[in-house]
Amino acid sequence: xxxxxxxxxxxxxxxxxxxxxxxxxxxxxxxxxxxxxxxxxxxxxxxxxxxxxxxxxxxxxxxxxxxxxxxxxxxxxxxxxxxxxxxxxxxxxxxxxxxxxxxxxxxxxxxxxxxxxxxxxxxxxxxxxxxxxxxxxxxxxxxxxxxxxxxxxxxxxxxxxxxxxxxxxxxxxxxxxxxxxxxxxxxxxxxxxxxxxxxxxxxxxxxxxxxxxxxxxxxxxxxxxxxxxxxxxxxxxxxxxxxxxxxx
Length: 248
Ligand code: 4GX
Fold this sequence. Notes:
The chain is an alpha/beta fold. The protein has helices spanning about 15-20, 20-30, 65-75, 95-105, 120-125, 145-155, 165-170, 200-220, 220-225, 230-245; strands at about 1-5, 30-35, 50, 60, 85-95, 110-115, 130-135, 185-190, 190.
């Protein structure tokens, strides 16, 4: 996957693109990220990229010229099928695992990181296919949201995460939270590991994990349970969990 990022702060992306799993994906060539500084496209002599809002009001707006020229530049250098142009914005569709899966199918994305009070509407009207928000809170710029989007989409590209099972089995992959995990030692400061996990009985272990997954979801994110499609077996386990919770 190729991702072009238009930002006023390209340096913010360098640590994430050179570390850990994403760093390896970039090295492997599974992910190619091009960073473009919007300011480099400003044509006025002070390289100013923002201006006052028409109609008055506080704050500044990213002006159309630098963004139009940056977008013309990245779009003309690609003969491939039209890239998906995304603006990070609190007004966007809220990112979730389903949207991440859809975007992981794209060959090429262009991500625009807004600043100040936003970008001139004409940029959105002419170029933007999709506005994406990472949640209902306000940040100072679109860079952290873009990094969140890149991280969460890139790990779904085949080969980026070592074991593909680990993207299948996890929270949200099927609308439930994960079960508790333990590693050695068996006893740490008096806190021990549930014995079923040492039993070697794989059927019992699966049942325990599924049940704890349902328990976790019921306790922490009951909203997810309402949307999850549970099998009769899962409904039975959930009933057990609810009875145990009443008992305590
Ligand atoms: N999820 N922000 C973007 C400037 C801005 C405003 C309007 C475009 C349109 C955010 C979020 C977020 C703050 C980044 C405002 N750009 N982005 N910035 N939450 O809060 O994505």
